[in-house]
Amino acid sequence: MKRIDLTEKILDIKREKGLTWKYIAGEIGGMSEVLITSALLGQMKLTKPQGEKAAALFGLSASETRLLNEVPMRGTPMPPTDPLIYRFHELVMINGPAWKALIEEEFGDGIMSAIDFDLDMVRLPDPKGDRVKITMSGKFLPYKYYGAEGNNQALGTKEE
């Protein structure tokens, strides 16, 4: 079985049972709703105990359960064609250079980790139309200036 086939099976069962991602994440537990949803959509992996909980919830075979614990091939085709996902792509294309400049000004020469990373999403009621609030928090990872000797800066942390 390919990972995409397991994702489709999980989505079919989710629809049949009328489950929500919030409910599923609560049943599997141990990580954020976003991460568990990503794992069940084939973009992340679950731990073995989480895989067992998912297997019980979705009635998965032993082989399918092991597949949930494998490191997946991550990513989606670019540019994204789904309008909602494309808007995130558009946010980065338009605001990415400013975010880069502001992060580098504050932290130095490096990147924000997408591995040591947290993401939270909440609904904010608004009389003009509810809003989506997304909070991202990634560890700053300074570039290593390889070959630095003596008093030369070895990491891209902000110079004071």
Quick recap:
By secondary structure, the protein is of the alpha+beta class.
Plain-language structure description:
- The mean pLDDT is 94.
- A hairpin with a 6-residue loop joins strand 1 (110-124) and strand 2.
- The N and C termini lie far apart (54 Å).
- With 160 residues, the chain is α+β, with helices and mostly antiparallel strands.
- The chain folds into 2 domains: 3-68, lambda repressor-like DNA-binding domains (434 Repressor (Amino-terminal Domain), Orthogonal Bundle); 83-142, Cyanate lyase, C-terminal domain (Cyanate Lyase, Chain: A, domain 2, 2-Layer Sandwich), CATH 3.30.1160.10.
- Helix 2 crosses helix 3 and helix 4 (48-58) packs across helix 5 (62-68).
- The chain has a two-stranded antiparallel sheet with strand order 1-2.
- The chain has helices spanning 3-17, 21-28, 33-40, 48-58, 62-68, 83-107; strands at residues 110-124, 131-142.
Instruction: List the uncertain runs.
Output: none
- How much helix, percentage-wise, in residues? 40-55%
What series of H and E elements makes up the topology?
HHHHHHEE
* Structural class label: alpha+beta
CATH superfamily of the largest domain: lambda repressor-like DNA-binding domains
Question: What's the pLDDT, averaged over the residues?
Answer: 94
Q: Shape, please?
A: globular
- Output the CATH class name of the largest domain: Mainly Alpha
Q: What count of structural domains? A: 2
* Main beta-sheet strand count, sense and barrel state: 2 strands, antiparallel
Strand order of the largest sheet: 1-2
Distinct helical segment count: 6
Strand content: 15-25%
